[in-house]
């Protein structure tokens, strides 16, 4: 259970293509936008936002296709996500952005093209460097989603992205499917109107994987990024995520790197989801202050 320490307001902006982008707002001070990753929504970093709310006004958008925001729409790609961030920055006056995973890819692209972003913090972007990971599993994932096999698709996505506890690699897929179905059913029963469930989020993975493919092997394109950038990652995260951070550290002209000992790709999330929001918040507070 998340214990909210401050009042939360909701709002929305209209992106360039007419899509509504909903967001949550809490705290007081300079604006910081948190861009969530795959299988997440605006509620996925509430604990982190609460940890920052004494110093910053934190904006938590639902990326398009999720929660209170509109559909992915035609011609979906990184540019659409950048337009969504641009609309939010224009309305709120925020100048600092924190992106998580696929949200970090969006934040990188936004910081490269939107001069209003003064500082960008980046947590483990799945940026493919020299073939560091393959997305060949996407065709299997898409087929399983089309067949209504949501649990199987989620397993394919988790294994393809090399996420989840390592012991799961030894568990037979049929048993993993049973476990995943049970988890989704339990969440469905407990969810309220603000919950964006695993079952609802499962089809959105296609679009996150699309971003990964679109931005693969593009690290050299960020040489001209002029914003101050904080690169964040966990010591226990998959090797390809560390490879991406290594490459960005060599490429970006104004980058600083922090690694969280003993943490993994879940570090930024809510405490109930194995996150360590207070640890991440301290690094962000030092950077954005």
TrEMBL record:
Keyword Hydrolase: yes
Protein keywords: Hydrolase
Extent of the signal sequence: none
A GO molecular-function annotation: hydrolase activity
The AB hydrolase-1 domain, residue ranges: 32-268
Domain of life where this protein originates: Bacteria
Any Pfam family the entry gives: Abhydrolase_6
Name of protein: Alpha/beta hydrolase
């Amino acid at each position: 259970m998340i214990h909210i320490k401050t009042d939360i307001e909701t709002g929305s902006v209209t992106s360039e293509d007419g899509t509504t982008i909903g967001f949550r707002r809490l705290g007081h001070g300079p604006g910081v936008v948190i861009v969530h990753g795959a299988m997440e929504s605006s509620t996925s970093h509430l604990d982190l936002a609460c940890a920052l709310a004494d110093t910053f006004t934190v904006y938590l958008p639902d990326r398009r296709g999720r929660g209170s925001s509109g559909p992915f729409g035609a011609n979906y790609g990184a540019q659409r996500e950048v337009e969504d961030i641009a609309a939010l920055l224009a309305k709120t006056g925020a100048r600092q952005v924190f992106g998580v995973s696929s949200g970090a890819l969006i934040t990188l692209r936004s910081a490269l093209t939107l001069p209003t972003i003064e500082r960008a913090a980046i947590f483990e972007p799945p940026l493919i460097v020299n073939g560091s990971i393959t997305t060949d599993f996407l065709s299997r994932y898409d087929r399983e989603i089309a067949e209504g096999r949501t649990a199987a698709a989620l397993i394919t996505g988790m294994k393809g992205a090399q996420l989840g506890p390592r012991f799961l690699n030894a568990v037979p897929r049929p048993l993993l499917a049973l476990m995943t179905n049970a988890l989704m059913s339990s969440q469905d029963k407990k969810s309220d109107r603000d919950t964006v469930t695993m079952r609802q989020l499962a089809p959105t993975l296609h679009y996150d994987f699309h971003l990964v493919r679109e931005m693969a092997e593009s690290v050299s394109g960020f040489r001209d990024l002029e914003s101050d950038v904080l690169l964040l990652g966990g010591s226990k995260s998959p090797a390809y995520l560390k490879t991406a951070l290594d490459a960005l550290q060599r490429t970006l002209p104004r980058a600083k790197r922090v690694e969280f000992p003993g943490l993994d790709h879940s570090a930024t999330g809510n405490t109930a989801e194995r996150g360590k929001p207070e640890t991440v918040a301290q690094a962000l507070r030092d950077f954005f202050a």
